[in-house]
């Protein structure tokens, strides 16, 4: 941060995110005023890109540590679209608030990396509506911009749902010489006039309308939150066994777990800023808090069951101990009259180390 004051504001914001309660609003900050944090997000001149570059350098180092001698490991590149639902009017960015699948809000196309135990939200783009660049085109641009350090050291496996199973996206992935396993709709047409839902045998090689090369198809049954099983169709751009295609197709759902964690724990969708810069910084800081908690879990708790609240608290105490102690002292000061009324006198003194 350019100044000590802005560094304190950054720590205060990350402290709110690392409370992992899903409501990191500046209003709840005990160390900085709401107006100060609003100015920090929306107006102050500090480099958001520098934070992104620093995080990405660290991420690349960690991911490359998964490389071992022998066969190249797989790097799963999972792509999906999520909606940060919003109500009300947003004058500064009303053109970005659109409706998709009956949900109104800010729609993000997210590129998510999985290798070993690492789970990394690497990049995102905002979908601006039906008259703009499609989600599949945005996803293809993000895949093209993956760093060469990763594309050289890993076999990339592109995983996405049916929203990205367009002929443009599939041809683009093949031109990049990557392998993709993509969901497709049940009414997707074959060149012989049949629909995908008319197929009876998994593992067939067939041609879809709009593609000039054969793909291999399979399907699996996905259990929803309501306990209902839904048949999901997936295709592979290279010949694979049906069971292998289905196994990789199910791996795409890993990103859904991150969406829930990012929203419900780290407040990804709770922004209320009045500028585009403020929203952008909010999203970056939310992802940063998630990464800090995730890395802390891998360092301290893995392979035990993940508790995001516990991991976030340990990250807060590890990276921002002074902030955590300041919050403790503020609580003690607030409760001192209550304690004194019950005959308890709290005295705090600095010890020599």
Structural notes for this entry:
Helix 2 (34-42) crosses helix 9 (276-300). The mean pLDDT is 89. The chain is an alpha+beta fold and 353 residues long. It is built from 11 helices and 9 strands. 41% of the residues lie in helices and 20% in strands. The chain has a single domain, classed as Alpha-Beta Complex (Transposase Inhibitor Protein From Tn5, Chain A, domain 1).
CATH class: Alpha Beta
CATH architecture: Alpha-Beta Complex
- How many helical stretches? 11
Helix content: 40-55%
What labels would you give this structure?
9 strands, nine-stranded mixed β-sheet, 11 helices, alpha+beta, 353 residues, Transposase Inhibitor Protein From Tn5, Chain A, domain 1
In brief:
The chain is α+β, with helices and mostly antiparallel strands and 353 residues long. The protein contains eleven helices and nine strands.
Topology:
Layout: H1 4-17, H2 34-42, H3 48-64, E1 74-85, E2 98-100, E3 103-115, E4 118-127, H4 135-144, H5 148-153, E5 155-160, H6 167-175, E6 179-184, E7 205-206, E8 215-223, E9 229-236, H7 242-251, H8 254-264, H9 276-300, H10 308-319, H11 321-341
Parallel strand pairs: 1-5, 5-6
Antiparallel strand pairs: 1-3, 2-3, 3-4, 6-9, 7-8, 8-9
Helix pairs in contact: 1-9, 2-9, 4-6, 9-10, 10-11
């Amino acid at each position: 941060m350019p100044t000590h004051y802005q560094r304190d504001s950054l720590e205060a914001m990350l402290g709110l995110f690392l409370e992992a309660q899903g409501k990191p609003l500046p209003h709840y900050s005990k160390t900085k005023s709401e107006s100060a944090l609003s100015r920090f997000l929306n107006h102050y001149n500090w480099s958001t890109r520098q934070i992104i570059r620093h995080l990405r350098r660290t991420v690349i180092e960690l991911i490359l540590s998964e490389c071992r001698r022998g066969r190249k490991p797989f790097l799963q590149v999972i792509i999906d679209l999520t909606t940060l639902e919003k109500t009300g009017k947003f004058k500064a960015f009303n053109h970005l608030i659109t409706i998709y699948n009956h949900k109104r809000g800010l729609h993000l196309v997210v590129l998510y990396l999985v290798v070993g135990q690492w789970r990394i939200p690497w990049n995102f783009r905002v979908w601006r509506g039906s008259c703009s660049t499609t989600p599949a085109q945005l996803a293809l641009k993000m895949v093209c911009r993956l760093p060469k350090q990763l594309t050289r050291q890993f076999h990339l496996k592109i995983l996405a749902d049916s929203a990205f199973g367009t002929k443009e996206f599939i041809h683009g992935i093949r031109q990049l010489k990557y392998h993709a396993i993509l969901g497709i709709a049940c009414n997707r047409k074959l060149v012989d006039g049949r629909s995908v839902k008319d197929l009876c045998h998994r593992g067939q090689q067939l041609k879809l309308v709009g593609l000039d090369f054969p793909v291999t198809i399979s399907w699996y049954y996905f259990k929803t939150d309501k306990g209902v099983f839904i048949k999901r169709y997936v295709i592979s751009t290279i010949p694979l066994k049906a069971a292998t295609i289905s196994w990789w197709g199910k791996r795409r759902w890993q990103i859904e777990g991150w969406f829930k964690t990012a929203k419900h724990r780290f407040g990804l969708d709770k922004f209320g800023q009045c500028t585009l810069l403020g929203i952008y910084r909010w999203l970056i800081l939310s992802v940063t808090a998630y990464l800090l908690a995730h890395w802390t879990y891998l360092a301290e708790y893995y392979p035990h069951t993940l508790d995001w609240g516990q991991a976030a608290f340990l990250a807060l105490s590890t990276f921002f101990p002074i902030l955590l102690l300041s919050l403790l002292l503020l609580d003690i000061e607030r409760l001192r009259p209550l304690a004194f009324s019950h005959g308890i006198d709290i005295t705090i003194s600095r010890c020599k180390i």
